[in-house]
## 1
Amino acid sequence: MITFSGNPLDRTAARRDDEAWLAERRANGRVLALHEGKPLMRGDELAWLDGAGNNALFLGMDGETAVFAVETDDARDGEFRELRAVALLLPADEAAIVAAAKSLFEWHARHRFCSNCGHATTVFSAGWKRVCPSCAAEHFPRVDPVVIMLPLRGDRCLLGRQFAWPKGRMAPLAGFVEPGESIEEACAREVQEEAGLSARHVTYHASQPWPFPSSLMFGLFVEVEGEGIPDGVELEEVRWLTRDEARSMLDGRHPDLLAPNRYAIGQVLLTHWVEQT
Amino acid sequence: MITFSGNPLDRTAARRDDEAWLAERRANGRVLALHEGKPLMRGDELAWLDGAGNNALFLGMDGETAVFAVETDDARDGEFRELRAVALLLPADEAAIVAAAKSLFEWHARHRFCSNCGHATTVFSAGWKRVCPSCAAEHFPRVDPVVIMLPLRGDRCLLGRQFAWPKGRMAPLAGFVEPGESIEEACAREVQEEAGLSARHVTYHASQPWPFPSSLMFGLFVEVEGEGIPDGVELEEVRWLTRDEARSMLDGRHPDLLAPNRYAIGQVLLTHWVEQT
């Protein structure tokens, strides 16, 4: 299972504009509380609240129970904690629900005004749309595609380290997809830009919703040619690893390398490659 | 080759903020002209202009030549034509360049104001960023991921027809990816919502930049269970096809079915499936 995927809710999108239907479900709804992207926790568990207000975001149905989310700074029932810190404490299905709500709220926070005319916009569709009362433009949540790829040459893979990362932390390369390119083309551009590598063949592995704030990660393997030279802008360092070296890094046994975060798809790519022989 | 992919330009993103470098290249640059997303054509060829102004969008390098794009209503040098009408007349590499420029200009047209505070924003990075002079928020072009999938059951595939389409026109199912879901999950949700089908296994096939206005299409195959019943909202009709029926539709020989547009990835999926035996 890939962290932040596996949301078990039925989004029931057809009901998002059905105010009467939603009204019936609010009183008995379960409510996830977030503040600035941080879920409300009680110890190491989500602090679910009972009963949703009119402005709650509708996340979907859990069987007969409607599930909502609210942005609030009321921490009486627990403590707001960073999602990165609790992603692996939560059951996978709850982490995925939190991820969806976090992305939506962070989109709302940055999109209160109409990009088309500058007027303040209004929330519609139980939180899934904003509409401009002045120019009538409709605005939908952003989902920003990102490619993350493990360059492969012979029996080695290449990892990179960004300037801001702690010494020893290394991960596959990554970058945003731009308008007018496929993910395969974005992958080829990024490995060339960041490490001077020529992409020969790109293979899709898996995708992952990534709620920081609203990316969609495309995990790829890419056969490359070239030595691999860090660009000195994004990447400070690159390193070719054998499967044995990567395995010891993943197991926490490598003398000077730290693996990618356990909830990141970079770790999934690396683990998959290590397990092939 | 997938239409709108295969842009041959080196985007040279590292130079987008290098005003001196750009200034040297404008006078000898080649310039693509668009008006409201329509490229300027002379007959069936792009009407390239010479020399770029200071506000031209920098698309990248074609060898030693810098390539730019401008939004203009000046049609002295040709005629503005719909991209859908000329996509297959243009060489593939030029169609891909037009697609990138079209997506960017349509993003600019709808994003002149800051979604964070409502203030008018300013173009930066040779057209690849807008910045708010009031709140300093940076805004990047949208790329909206869409899943398009061919449902398969046994030796048949399912196509759907939307209400707005002409009678007989059928295509794979499609929908926008929402925050908090992988493409595999978006695919499963869409086939359930639109046709009442349960997804069993999703396979990635290819991606395609889709400049109407700025989508990124993910072409998928999905093994499904269920009969397939159109939702009556998006889809008016669904139909299971054998490979022979799909082949005759693709060849234009089917008595009452019309294939998807030739430049759409739906056609690529269908052709790939037909060619498997």
## 2
Amino acid sequence: MNEQALVERIRKMAGDTATKLVLGIGDDCAIYRPKAGEDLLFKSDQLIEGVHFLSGLDPASIGQRALARALSDIAAMGGTPKFCLVSLTVPRGWTQSNILAFFRGLLRLAKRTGTTLAGGDLAHSGKLYCDVMLCGAVPRGRGLRRDGARAGDTLWVSGRLGKPWDRPIQPRLELGRKLLRRATACLDVSDGLALDLHRLCVASGVAAQVDRVPAAHGATIEHALHGGDDYELLFTLPPRTSGPRGTTRIGKIVAGKPGAMLFEGRPLKPRGYDHFGIAIT
Amino acid sequence: MNEQALVERIRKMAGDTATKLVLGIGDDCAIYRPKAGEDLLFKSDQLIEGVHFLSGLDPASIGQRALARALSDIAAMGGTPKFCLVSLTVPRGWTQSNILAFFRGLLRLAKRTGTTLAGGDLAHSGKLYCDVMLCGAVPRGRGLRRDGARAGDTLWVSGRLGKPWDRPIQPRLELGRKLLRRATACLDVSDGLALDLHRLCVASGVAAQVDRVPAAHGATIEHALHGGDDYELLFTLPPRTSGPRGTTRIGKIVAGKPGAMLFEGRPLKPRGYDHFGIAIT
């Protein structure tokens, strides 16, 4: 059974418990609808030493990164972050000042983005594990899903792709909010453009043609297409609509086998960075 | 710096981001208030091999346990569970059927308690690590906190204490709901009666006298007082109020040094099971 099939199995096993949700397993975030005009967005994201980052990253950067990854998913839904829960397991060698540095890095970004630290859990074990659960809000029914792209839409990406993995992540929250009521589909590029575009196309039942890709300084086209950890937004707009400042039109959505992709006229494989690494959401 | 002081530091660092919450760091759950007559409860709980359970527990039992621990915290607030996010990291030796068994165990309990699996994250790494984020709801302003006990209240516990750690956990959700509008304080006994009672007393600024403790079959009094993993509810009631069926009056709340405790007239130390093991909530 491949990973996708495994997720399908889990989704089916969850099946009839999903009725309370507007959007359950299958997108960047799950949406639970309270009765007050807004949908709440929830995302949990693990960050594990040796899997999502290499040993040697300093604790403050790890904290920043743990939250930023989850914020990027809220941004991809057009959401505004509300609060997070942080579960952290540290190696025996970590001192309390390491732990504080972790939270400092995390809270600096939390304050800047209006995210409240609402709780969590600490433990000691062999290596560093972190899991951030994030809640965000979006006007009811307006969450940017990945399944709304239609043939004829244009395809856009923010920023430049193929950046070094260990730089601080800047979640595109402002851009995500601007895309509310404009984009037909959106997700964040966390595992490489090719793989994430494939996910968008499969979810929407469409194919895509990519004409160009804005590579970061020093990045190869290969890296811009298949490298992970960009945390830019990939989105589709209806015909004759322009993307906001700082975004680049990279191609278009076409009818075709769902998930099929071309780059400069040649088949583009959905190869990217996959840590096992299955987002169930 | 001890663990408590460390949590205080983190709480202070989080400080001015906490304004969106009715109840932030410092109780079983954080409460975020939507505008529709109910408070939502959120809890995340790690379950780590070698820390929270021993190797050899079967995958379905691990899944059951991971959710049950978080449900117990929702029960302790008098809440009704809504949905959960599950982050799971498995050892390389785990097969996909192990993973499915994990989710089967988890989802069986999820369905029985009305909890929707809303998403999560899977990864491969050295040992088994699981983090469950759970959301529950409670009528607005009615969540059972641990800081409401007053001198003169009676002290109660559900079930029997000192049970074997590897039995399936039965979260006391029905009891928790019955205690809404009745109990003055409540928490779940997850780290041993003595340690959890101490937390209740410190939060409420009171002392306690314990006269007896209902020990499980085969458990010593020592184990009933200081063993962990009971997941029963410990709560206080106003004078002249009876506890629901299946609960036992074990003592009373008195004025005194906050956190001071007596058992059968002798000082009781707040010794229990602490895995590092700090709930930030």
